[in-house]
Specification:
Layout (H helix, E strand, L loop, with lengths): L12 E6 L7 H12 L3 E4 L6 H11 L3 E6 L4 H14 L7 E6 L6 H7 L3 E3 L5 H11 L4
Helix pairs in contact: 2-3
Length: 140
């Protein structure tokens, strides 16, 4: 029997956020529940949050993962504002940013260049998303 103890595994903290005027949050609720069931600690922002409010919540809650759910078509405006806000607070490097929603293929490279790690559109499985978070949430 070994006297060494396994290091305690830290729970991944996730903020699932709805940004802008997008009022459809069924997908955000579904992914929040899937993340919770996978053992992640989940905070849901609620609807109609400004980019600054999401940045403040991510920093204050010290999340590992920021999941932005957006269906409004304003992703090229709102997501970069969130990324810039995280950079201003020095939280960008510690936060895995993923986006879910309807994001046209032509817009995806720009979001990735801005700092989004992955984009999950319609048809992405919950397990695929959970596995991505487990594999890519930054170690602290």
């Amino acid at each position: 029997m070994s006297t060494e103890q396994e290091p305690e595994q830290r729970t991944i903290r996730c903020l699932v956020a709805k940004v802008g005027l997008d009022g459809h949050d069924r997908g955000a609720h579904v992914i929040a529940r899937a993340f919770r069931d996978a053992g992640f600690e989940v905070i849901y922002s609620g609807l109609h949050k400004a980019p600054d409010e999401i940045v403040q919540a991510a920093v204050q809650e010290d999340v590992d993962v920021l999941g932005i759910s957006i269906l409004s078509g304003a992703h090229n405006t709102l997501v970069p504002k969130i990324v810039e806000g995280l950079k201003e607070y020095g939280a960008f490097e510690d936060t895995l940013i993923i986006v879910g929603g309807i994001i046209p293929e032509d817009d995806r490279p720009g979001l990735r260049e801005a700092g989004v790690a992955e984009i999950f559109g319609p048809g992405a499985s919950m397990q695929e998303t959970i596995d991505f978070v487990r594999e890519n949430a930054r170690e602290r």
